[in-house]
Design a protein that fits this description.
single chain; 337 residues; mainly beta; Immunoglobulin-like; 2 domains; 5 helices
């Protein structure tokens, strides 16, 4: 199977019934072993083709200590000390499962991918105490407005935080909206692709209308070291919300915080079946820009989606790139009374 790419990946389904060997990721900058195409690794067990099932990963459950369903509604507001909202974030190397039996050597913030969803209110003073407990230099770069020494990039301020070192990033919560944070150490694509990213929500001072709020970070994983993704997902685990649909209530306002953290692909997208949503790019305005059923985001783009489901039943959502959907980026809303 040397030379197997994601584009002929789904054609290899007859081979996926065998036991699933673990995927092992090379160190950043290392070259691919001669003749290695990933076909004998875990990546060859993730394909979906010809149906909404996923033949290579039917059944079973991942064994991570974080759950994609919990990540949906898990917002970390930290703690307020002397008027400053604080968090403690630790970078660590950790093996995770991105599909049942498909293991990936990730770099994580607080042991999960995506990292914790940090949440503050516009105008607050913030402090993020970052400790690097991994085996590589890392940083934290926050989208927002702040001084250069708190920008989390090499050669400015503290620069890279070396293994065993810590640094306090301090800045104000502005502007309100949906942002993200990620490592900015070179090579940048590798540090992000390995899992060092998370969502950063700044609520407007007056808040937003009450809603069932869901965090969806679109991501992917290069499991055979060719700098293309073999697995796509929302909140890390392929087909997680097909196996466990997202339960929402009919007629209730649903607010989706959608972040594109995907590397190695220029664009990602979100499409909802049998419904439309109001879209707020970056969430920095309280007025939507359009009513639609599909939105496209580039790398690092994000936005807020608001909708209500008028009928009960199961409604699909997925990337409107068929390849992404077939390789893990799809799920269902389960709408109940």
């Amino acid at each position: 199977m040397a030379g197997l790419s994601r584009r002929n990946f789904v054609c290899r389904l007859p081979f996926v019934a065998a036991a699933v060997p673990a995927a092992v990721n090379l160190p950043v900058g290392a070259s691919k072993p001669a003749g290695h195409g990933g076909g004998d690794g875990a990546a060859a067990n993730t394909a979906a083709h010809g149906s909404q099932a996923h033949a290579g990963i039917v059944g079973g459950k991942v064994k991570n200590d974080f759950d994609p369903t919990e990540i949906l509604r898990d917002y970390d507001t930290g703690r307020v000390i002397n008027g400053v909202r604080e968090w403690e974030i630790v970078a660590e190397d950790k093996e995770i499962e991105v599909a049942p039996g498909v293991k990936y050597a990730a770099w994580t913030y607080n042991g999960r991918v995506p990292g914790p969803t940090l949440r503050a209110t516009e105008g607050e003073k913030l402090r993020v105490r970052f400790t690097n407990a991994s085996s590589h230099p890392h940083t934290m770069h926050f989208h927002g407005i702040h001084t250069d020494v708190n920008d989390g990039i090499p050669n400015i301020g503290p620069g890279n935080i070396e293994p065993g070192e810590s640094y306090d990033y301090e800045f104000g919560a502005e502007p309100f909206g949906l942002h993200l944070y990620h490592c900015h150490t070179r090579p940048l694509a590798d540090h992000i692709a390995k899992g060092l990213y998370g969502a950063f929500i700044i609520d407007p001072k007056k808040g937003r209308p009450k809603a069932d709020e869901l965090l969806m970070v679109m991501n992917g994983f290069d499991t055979n070291f060719d700098r293309t993704n073999e697995i796509y997902a929302v909140n890390t685990v392929a087909f997680a919300y097909e196996r466990e649909p997202i339960r929402v209530k009919r007629g209730e306002q649903v607010r989706i915080y959608l972040v594109n953290a995907l590397e190695f692909d220029l664009l990602n997208s979100f499409h909802i079946h049998a419904n439309f949503f109001d879209y707020y790019p970056t969430g920095t305005s309280l007025e939507p820009t359009e009513l639609t059923d599909t939105v496209i985001q580039g790398q690092g783009q994000r936005g807020i989606l608001e909708l209500r489901f008028p009928f009960t039943g199961k409604y699909m959502f997925h990337a409107h790139v068929s390849e992404f959907a077939e390789l893990g980026w799809m799920g269902f809303f389960d709408v109940v009374d």
